[in-house]
Amino acid sequence: MSQKNETSILILSLIITSILTTVSFWWFTSRTGLNTSNSISDRSSYADKYNRETFAEVQGVPKGLFNYGGSTTWATIRKEIDPALQTVWPQFRLRYTQPNISIPSSGTGIQMLLDNQLSFAQSSVSIQDKDYEKAKQKGFTLVEVPVAIDAFAAVVHPNLNIPGITVGQLNDIYAGKITNWQEVGGPNLKIKAYRKGTPDSESHLEFVPTTTDALRKVANESGAIFQASAPLLISQCKVKPLPLGRTSNKFITPYKEPFIPLSECPNKRNQVNLVAFQSGEYPLTRRLFVVIKKNGQLDERAGEAYANLLLTNQGQELIEKAGFVRIR
Fold first, then answer.
1. Which residue pairs, CB below 8 angstroms and at least 24 apart, start in 297-304?
2. Predicted local confidence at residue 200, as pLDDT
């Protein structure tokens, strides 16, 4: 066989192999449902969706007046985010809505969402199984989108002399197992623990309707304690935040050190310890969620748009400015 014929046969073999490979790949992808072009497109769409820099770059922001509400932890975020959103998207009008009877909370916000009173909810706790089931019974689903990290802090009277307490001790105080500050290294003084919520006659806790009421109580009662979201408490002028620890040999402050004396407030205020919150060194942190109603209607679009706006770089910067840890 001549060299010319050998070369022709080799080229023909390569062409046939290429054709067979292409046909085999087409047959495999059609049988398995794999679509490489769509997969690449989906990945690009996903990356594009969550890598927006500014509010103006977010697509699909609907027009209308949308009710939202829920956790009071979100108060400082709303203060920073809402005006900026309305400037960029004036047609995306947000209306903060409180419950008619009970006090605002994550739970009441999710319940109002289930009852069609809100377009989306702001929550500082995860959706409970019972709420997923209620949504299913109503013909839709709930989705929680994490947008920030929050930390819990405890505040006491400014004159209480104590270096800090462990998370276990804090839980025991609220469970009624520890009733005197002397039990955790403090003075011989009865503990009065305050919690925001509906009064319960059978509970040893003192319930108050708002964070403001709780702070007023703690500032005037030497044995009082109250816990809530750190950004709501650290900058206050009349109460002292307690360092917390997983163990008693290492307490972490919820505020940036050094501590600014309360006598210098309000000209100078303490700031939250974002570094410790972000690293996980501080022992009490949690995620904040936008809760979306997946029903294929305008409310779903509003909830998704709100979450996407908060996940832009601009939104995350404002979240950080409000005292929370950005997650993007």
1. 298/62, 298/64, 298/119, 299/66, 299/119, 299/120, 301/60, 301/62, 302/62, 302/64, 302/66, 302/92, 302/119, 302/120, 303/119, 303/120, 304/60
2. 72
In whole angstroms, give the CA distance from residue 159 to residue 189: 12
* Residue 300: how many other CB atoms lie within 10 Å: 19
The Cα 30–Cα 25 span in angstroms is 8
Task: Report pLDDT for 143.
Answer: 98
Residue with tokens 């050998």: 6
Q: How far apart are CA 1 and CA 13, in angstroms?
A: 16
28-37: pLDDT as tens digits: 333 333 333 3
CA angle 303/305/302 to nearest 5° reads 40
Q: Which two tokens stand for residue 143?
A: 């989705």
pLDDT digits (tens, 9 = 90+) for 17-51: 444 444 343 433 333 333 333 333 333 333 456 67
Average the pLDDT over each of 10-24, 26-40, 86-100, 128-142 and give the range with the smallest value: 26-40
Question: 121 - beta bridge partners?
Answer: 69, 291
| pLDDT tens digit sequence for 53-74 | 999 999 999 999 999 999 999 9
Token pair 């007046």 is found at: 65
Query: Do strands 141-156 and 325-326 pair parallel, antiparallel, or not at all (unpaired)?
Result: antiparallel
Q: How far apart are CA 198 and CA 99, in angstroms?
A: 13
Place of tokens 């462990």: 166
Q: Which of 76, 72, 146, 123 is nearest to 310 (CA)?
A: 146
CA distance 262 to 225: 17
* Phi, psi angles (nearest 5°) of residue 77: -65, -45
Task: Provide the token pair at 151.
Answer: 């930390």
Residues in the chain: 328
Work out the mean pLDDT of the chain and round it to a whole number.
88
What 3-state DSSP class applies to 79? helix
Instruction: State the pLDDT at residue 8.
Output: 52
Q: How large is the angle between the packed helices 106-114 and 129-137, nearest 10 degrees? A: 10
